[in-house]
TrEMBL record:
Protein's name in the database: Neutral zinc metallopeptidase
Top-level taxon of the source organism: Bacteria
SUPFAM superfamilies: Metalloproteases ('zincins'), catalytic domain
Amino acid sequence: MDWVAARAPTLAEFEALAADAWENLPAEFREMAGDLLIRVEDFATDEVLKSLDIEDPFELTGLYQGVSLTKQSVMESAREPDMVFLYRRAILDEWTENGEELGHLIAHVLVHEIGHHFGFSDEDMEAIEAEVSV
């Protein structure tokens, strides 16, 4: 790779990578997640970091925001859709440290954020990631 001319993907380019990663996840996994929105931001907000007791914004690569499955009810009124936030700068920092293909790393973060929400084990998430062809 020509590192002299290399540059980090823009937010729009990163969103395209995230969309590709999402489309390459197993169909059953995507169906289970429903109408999930994926948002890309450079970093988590100070409010989010504070609520999670995280001081360094580079430590948070993603976050699932939504009503926990154990707290959802058919009686509840309309609510905002569930979202996964991907934090571009934190993911890029991890990417430069481990050299993993960026699309695979984005898929990894998506699987883990969604998987934790649904209570998947690490082994379950590893099996899902093994099916990804990014």
